[in-house]
Amino acid sequence: MEEVTWKGFDIGIENLARIIPKDFYSHLYPIKRGGVPVAVALSAKLGIKISDRILGQNTLVVDDIADSGTTLFMFKEMGIATATLYKKPKSITTPTYYIYETDQWVKFPWESDEAPAEDNITRILQSIGEDPLREGLKDTPARVSKMHREIYKGYDPAQKPKITVFPNGEDGVCINQMVVDSGTYVSWCEHHMLPFFGHYHFAYIPNKSIVGLSKIARIVDYHASRLQVQERLTAQIVNDLHDTLCPVGMALQMRGRHLCKEIRGAKNNGEMVTTELRGVFEEQQVRMEFLHIIGR
Questions:
Q1: Is there a catalytic annotation at residue 223?
Q2: Does residue 191 carry a catalytic annotation?
Q3: Is 27 a residue of the active site?
Q4: What's this model's pTM, rounded to 2 decimal places?
Q5: Which residue of the set 14, 77, 191, 282 is catalytic?
Q6: CATH: 3.60.20.30, 3.40.50.2020, 3.40.50.300, 2.40.50.140. Which one for 2-148?
Q7: What would the DSSP string read from start to end of 85-113?
Q8: Which segments in the chain show pLDDT lower than 50?
């Protein structure tokens, strides 16, 4: 990794300013986030104003590095000149003006060891050819980052629901029949970070403990709220509940539609079915009763 100091940055700006014809460009347009300090430094050197939008071919687009070159390629197609401090050999676009070429990872002085999540989302927008500074996208990185903290709450142990159990027979009624609960879930494919979703059918035959059905839904949601594959998700839910309830038997069937299959790749609709059986549910008669109750 090549670490750039502020002194090294100033030297790079000095050299970059020398090769840019300041009388030709009327505005600098910085690519968020790395382009901002470069644009500010160039503006001070060249006396060129900074703009939050492209103002014709007299605008110079500024970034810190041409990495993949995808973002800069969009401007090249528009006939807009670009300037960066660094260029990587693999970049599909060569900036109009640049100083250094490197195949290393470059860390600039304004970058922390852990870049804010919003910066990474901004880079994704740039990589698909979008302009993160346009009106509709200005607040998108912050919105997406906030959403991620919500939909991926399954990584936070503090948010795991407490499974409250009650002694079976405490009120004089001992439950020994099959208890079935159904509901919906949404999870996230770990291969493409796209949703998969559908219905679940849970059943158990109590032993010494019973549980409120709302807890089942909360446990399903907690384990679903992380990057998953459906097979592992099904097993994790059953493991969690089985360890707490220690029932005579337990079963969970999950049926899911996977958008990574439906909107990309095969582009084919259909459901994936996973079933986890424990205890007496492994016996054919009990298994068949469970499948009959849930209509499968």
A1: no
A2: yes
A3: no
A4: 0.67
A5: 191
A6: 3.40.50.2020
A7: EEE-TT-SS--SEEEEE-SS-EE-TT--S
A8: none
